[in-house]
Design a protein that fits this description.
71 residues, 0% strand
């Protein structure tokens, strides 16, 4: 599943750009899978990017921002 999640993230970045909601969801999904296999550094980088983007768009109490921060 990890190669498909990486591909989905890459395709979303290329098609929508790094700040689009679909791209952020793909990054979040990839990060969760990376956590599951112990790739914490890469997962942290992805999640921090998601949190940064969502925090710029919404308040930190917004459900999307809360979900990303809970990972």
């Amino acid at each position: 599943a990890l190669p498909l999640l990486r591909e989905a993230h890459t395709l979303n970045v290329g098609h929508y750009g790094p700040s689009h909601e679909n791209t952020l969801q793909a990054a979040n999904n990839l990060a969760i899978s990376l956590i599951d296999i112990g790739e914490f550094d890469e997962a942290e980088t992805l999640l921090m990017g998601v949190i940064r983007e969502l925090s710029a768009r919404y308040s930190l109490e917004h459900p999307d921002a809360l979900e990303a921060r809970s990972n």
